[in-house]
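Lab channel / #folding
Pinned by the channel admin:
"Please post every new chain as: sequence first, then the structure tokens as a reply. Keep commentary short and put observations after the output so the thread stays searchable."

First post following the new format, from NK:
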Amino acid sequence: MQLEELTGSSTWPRGRLAFAGLILLYAALVVVCLGAFVMAGDLSLGRNPWSNLVKSLGDFARPSFVDLWFGPERLEYRSDDGTLLRVENRRLVEADFLAALARASWVTFQIATLGSLLAAVMALPLGILTARNLHAPRPLAYAAKAVLDATRAIHTLVFGLVLVGIVGLGPTAGILAIALHSMGTYGKLFAESIETLDMGSVDAVRATGASSTQVFFSAVWPSVLPQFISSHLYVWEFNIRDSTILGLIGAGGLGLLISEAVSLFQWGRLATVLLVVVAMVTAFDALSRRIRKALL
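Reply from TO:
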């Protein structure tokens, strides 16, 4: 008993010192990063930041969708000398924009859904190989881990830029970009789920003379399936957010509308698009919570 108390008392201070050392190292890293930016003169708020902020917030406070009911039905555009250039019915224009927004939202959801599914299918065998408690052959385990680390390290947007050049503009590039990046995340989550298994039941099935495939589907798969589904829902939700930017590079979806709104300084329309993104993610999060709760 005294030995356990002495061991605990000696280990705890060392653990606290190690943690304090990590905190100091992190603080030093933050100071170095901040100091480098300050010395280079790269930390700047630009000209008139507060007035720009107030103006932008004012534009965001009135999303463009309100024009569907309150927009002027005869908006006149005139030149500096007063010449009438064109007349516009803002309600009809906004109705057309909202229809395009609905189509783009559906495309974004399709990209996220198909890309996530493809990523999960590709990641499953790699996650099985990298799970340490399944003792896959080392060359295969190292190769699988290298693939997962590489795909997880490269951002979706970078994959998208490359794939647009390979397969052309459109949702195919977006689906593949989502799949390649998410494969690394799925593989890591799948491997960690497998590594938390109670190996007693797995060894019991293996002791009966079952093959590796039978062991996996009899002892491993039923235990990890709820965690796999939970991981899939989490990454799927993340990919809905991530796929909204792929339209910026021509991969389809909401990104194109975001790019147009930003380039034309149409902050009201940008606010409408962002509200749709928030609504999509919130609705999917609520649905996935219900599914995960049902799996518990």
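NK: Residues 14 and 271 are 51 Å apart (CA to CA).
TO: also worth noting, Residues 90-130 form the longest helix (41 residues).
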